[in-house]
Amino acid sequence: MARSLPSKLLIAFSSILLAHACYSAHEHSLLSTTTTTTHDPLSSSSSPSFSSPHSSTIPSGSTLPLDITLETLLSVSLLLVGIVSSGWELKPISLRSYAGGVESGRILVDGKKGKGLFVGLEERAGFADVRKQRKEFTDWMKTQG
Amino acid sequence: MSLTNLLNRFRTVSVHPTPSESLALSQLAPSILNLSITDTPEQWVLYESLLLSTLRTGDDTSARLILQRLADRFGNDNARIMALQGIYDECTATNQAQLEEVLKNYTEVLKEDPTNIPIAKRRITLLHHLSKKSEAISALTTLIDLNPTDAESWSQLAQYYFEISLYPQAIYCLEEVLLILPNAYNVHARLGEIHLVAAESIGSSASKEVVEKLEASLRWYLRAVELCDGYLRGYYGVKLVTGKLLDSKISAAHRTIPEEKVNKLNSVATVQLNDIVTGSEQGKKAFTGYDSAEVAAAKELLEATS
């Protein structure tokens, strides 16, 4: 797949951005678990209530900082744009270009040169006059000597 | 060679091969017959194509063997096998009387089962071969009454009408084909050709009728190139017909398409044909599909009008 330079750069940049967003999210979750575990013995020893460690762990999982979320979304969209615009040849979706490709030999049908899409209407195998073709062949053989 | 390779060699050749192609295919017979029978659809398709090739080249012993194997597998009363058996009988008949005998067999089969389409088509072809053209046409119209959605039959009927110069009937049949297959761009081009031939068959070369037919022909050709990008046959027709319309003998009063438009179409077709001709002469990869005879004809037309 031949890719153009700008889209290559875009893919590289957005990949780094995505990796960075993943790393940040991972670090953030580590940070919140370490803070809760260090917080845990303290709170359990100081007060009989179990509500305070619970209230600190549940929101820590759901409140990923806004900048990480935005970075993830931005990097994924840039990556998509980069891949889509990377200059690969799209398959024809209109009959006009597909039929034209088959006629000119640009598009191969089953890996070989096609004979046109509706050639059966002009060849008409059901009505093939094989006896006539046989006679033509005999005549041809005579000219070949 | 494997089964797929052999099958591909048959697929690249049309139903009407040149004698040298037939010979090459027919010579594959021993290697195909020596392959073990695997009972796959591909193998039977290969057998069927080989049967036709051997019959074309007169290798009747191989043909007999292939037909025997096909009949052993599918039974003698299978419609398709019956048609193949019919082709074999047609080809091996040595005189007129034997051919008439084959024809009688077909008629009897159809009396028992009028819906045996392959045999009905064989009978029509044989009638046409025996120069009973009007009988062939009436048999074909009966078949179409029975099976009106068969595009192949309509297309064949158009050909028969065309051969006896009944152009309006031929055009009607091809329009029926288009009702079944509206995207068949080669049928559009064929309609253009028939309109053009019909226009040329009219004696007085500048009458209103001629202009009408030429314009109809141009419209069909234009639809053909609209449906198929870079269609050599279509652009050839556009160039040819616009050239005729621009002929000074044709008075402007009869025209419905303005002259500047015709001029523009002519130059577009010229550009497209030039592209195709130079592309295939240089052997570019995107132009390898064109038929060399068609390219040569396009080149000749370009040189004649430049």
From TrEMBL, chain A:
Superkingdom field: Eukaryota
Give the Pfam families listed for this entry. Answer: MMgT
Q: Where is this protein localized, as stated in its record? A: Endomembrane system
Extract the signal peptide range: 1-21
Q: Record's Gene Ontology CC terms?
A: EMC complex
> Which controlled-vocabulary keywords does the entry list?
Membrane, Signal, Transmembrane, Transmembrane helix
* Chain segments carrying region Disordered: 35-56
Q: How does it sit in the membrane?
A: Multi-pass membrane protein
Q: Which InterPro entries does this UniProt record tie to the protein?
A: EMC_subunit, MMgT
Family as reported in the entry's similarity comment: Belongs to the membrane magnesium transporter (TC 1.A.67) family.
- Please give the name of this protein: Uncharacterized protein
Automatic annotation (TrEMBL), chain B:
Lineage here is: Eukaryota, Fungi, Dikarya, Ascomycota, Pezizomycotina
On subunit structure and binding partners, the annotation says:
Component of the ER membrane protein complex (EMC).
Name of the molecule in the record: ER membrane protein complex subunit 2
**Residue ranges of domain EMC2 TPR-like in the record:** 101-194
Query: Which cellular components does GO assign to this protein?
Result: EMC complex
Query: One matching Pfam family, short form?
Result: TPR_EMC2
Subcellular localization, as worded in the UniProt entry: Endoplasmic reticulum membrane
Keyword annotations from UniProtKB, A to Z = Endoplasmic reticulum, Membrane, Repeat, TPR repeat
The cross-references to PANTHER family, in alphabetical order and at most eight, read:
TETRATRICOPEPTIDE REPEAT PROTEIN
Highest taxon of the lineage: Eukaryota
Name the species this protein comes from: Arthrobotrys conoides
In the record, the note on similarity to other proteins reads:
Belongs to the EMC2 family.
Q: What does this protein do?
A: Part of the endoplasmic reticulum membrane protein complex (EMC) that enables the energy-independent insertion into endoplasmic reticulum membranes of newly synthesized membrane proteins.
Membrane topology label: Peripheral membrane protein
Task: Give me the TPR repeat coordinates as residue ranges.
Answer: 151-184
Concerning InterPro entries, the annotation shows: EMC2-like, TPR-like_helical_dom_sf, TPR_EMC2, TPR_rpt
Asked if the Swiss-Prot or TrEMBL record annotates the protein with the keyword Glycoprotein, the reply is no
